[in-house]
Design goal:
6 strands, 55% helix, 465 residues, single chain, 18 helices
Length: 465
């Protein structure tokens, strides 16, 4: 199951985490404004919640809005102009979030904000741990299907968040090890009737923004939570909820800015940008888990589209080396009566038809519509297969058909740089048994030597390159 990570491209991870960040922002707006309504749950959370926000925005509490504005300003200024600017001089980042919680709790308690200004407080914090007990195994068949779905989705979300921070801080993660850790954690927590373990983007960002970098930070967080659950929970009762919401929103600032990744993707790969947009929109409009699934499926669909849009490069000669002919290589030249073509993708059933179509278009057969006369008559066709990392039966048949078709028209064909996987398919399927085995060449250079000599490559066998 650790292979799930393989299908989470950077575009999918970026779309999911950015969409999740906007979900978190949406869930905190009512606490920021001090309005009261029942928070939507499940599918279409984002649009349904914003409809309720605009419906009740006239009921905003001015005192809560001021507390939110002041909290966000202080936290943002300290993080940006102190922690980031003087990061090399400070022994550790200023714990502005903790300081904000302490100060806000004291001010709220002394000023009696709840009674005087109707400011919503954290309220009663349950203390103590639940008693462990065995799960109800007799109900296993009732929840098995849902449990499998939750396991896959939660693991995919966990890996998405882990990859986000791994990319930011330049370290590697082992998805299989992550899966083992979550499995053990879920087994242990099941004795306490807990929810399924899953990475919380908001809490992770807050911890990372506070300077946490190693697993020790998680251990400290657990210890602090345990202390508050057992002893200090009642002390947080006067804390305004707006302060906690403000800390979360500021911590997620970098997540919101991932939207500007679209500008880079636009210049690099427009299809990858489309994956980002589809994933992000699906997360916003539907929900995080369905959005992740849609992003992965859409990304896999685009792999098929890319295969069907595979390019064929026309190569020329430059100082005895075969190179692509284009406007940036003015010194390269095509050999007379010779075409050197390179198919730049794996060759299988989805694009075998395109392979044959491009070869026929770029190297017209003598007498065909694209051939303009004897002066441009094709005598030699060289197929560079160095980019074909995988070929199935349909791909091997496409190569064999082109070879036979051009040889029948008195055009010599050389197939070069065949990888072992491609050669294996050609040999096991005996697709070239009716043609001269000397069609296979080690490289473009050896094929060009034979072309210049007017013969084939003698008896040399080509197996690998």
């Amino acid at each position: 199951m650790g292979m799930v990570n393989t299908y989470l491209s950077d575009a999918v991870v970026g779309g999911v985490t950015t969409g999740a960040a906007f979900h978190i922002l949406t869930s905190q707006v009512k606490d920021i404004l001090g309005i009261r309504f029942k928070l939507a749950r499940g599918a279409h959370f984002f649009p349904r919640t914003w409809i309720e926000i605009f419906r009740h925005i006239g009921e905003s509490n001015p005192a809560t809005v001021i507390i939110s504005a002041v909290s966000m300003t202080i936290v943002s200024v300290v993080k940006t102009h102190v922690n980031e600017r003087f990061a090399k001089r400070l022994p550790f980042p200023v714990p502005v979030e903790m300081g904000m919680v302490v100060v806000a709790t004291l001010v709220s308690s002394l000023a009696n904000l709840e009674q005087r200004f109707s400011v919503r407080l954290v309220g009663t914090v349950p203390s103590g741990f639940p008693r462990p007990r065995l799960p109800v195994f007799s109900a296993m068949h009732l929840v098995l299907q849902d449990a499998i779905v939750m396991a896959v989705v939660s693991f995919a979300l966990n890996v998405s968040v882990a990859r986000l921070f791994a990319k930011k801080h330049e370290y590697r993660i082992d998805p299989t090890q992550e899966l083992l850790a979550y499995g053990v954690g879920n087994v242990f927590s099941s004795f306490f009737e807990s929810y399924v373990l899953c990475a919380a983007l908001a809490r992770s960002v807050v911890q990372e923004a506070s300077g946490g970098r190693t697993q020790l930070a998680g251990l400290v967080s657990c210890a602090v939570v345990a202390i508050f659950l057992l002893f200090l929970g009642p002390l947080l009762q006067p804390l305004p909820q707006a302060v906690l919401a403000s800390i979360v929103l500021v911590a997620l600032k970098r997540m919101y800015l991932q939207v500007f990744d679209l500008r880079t993707l636009w210049h690099v790969d427009k299809l990858e940008m489309l994956v980002w947009i589809v994933t992000f929109a699906s997360v916003l409009i539907i929900d995080v888990a369905p959005g992740l699934l849609i992003g992965v499926v859409f990304n896999l669909f685009l792999l098929i589209v890319r295969a069907q849009l595979a390019a064929m490069a026309l190569l020329g000669q430059l100082e005895l080396a075969a190179l692509r002919v284009n406007e940036n290589l003015d010194t390269s030249r095509e050999l007379p009566s010779t075409k050197i073509l390179r198919f730049e993708h794996s060759l299988f059933y989805a694009n075998a038809w395109r392979f044959k179509k491009l070869v026929r278009e770029m190297a017209p057969l003598p007498g065909s519509k694209g051939c303009s006369g004897d002066s441009s008559r094709l005598h030699h066709l060289i197929l560079d297969c160095s980019c074909i990392s995988y070929a199935d039966t349909a791909g091997a048949k496409a190569i064999a058909k082109i070879v036979k078709e051009y040889q029948a028209a008195q055009v010599s064909v050389h197939v070069c740089h065949c990888r072992e996987s491609l050669l294996g398919v050609l040999q096991r399927g005996q697709f070239l048994q009716d043609v001269d085995k000397r069609v296979l060449q080690a490289s473009i250079e050896t094929a060009l030597e034979d072309v210049s000599c007017g013969n084939y490559a003698g008896e040399q066998e080509v197996i690998k390159c």
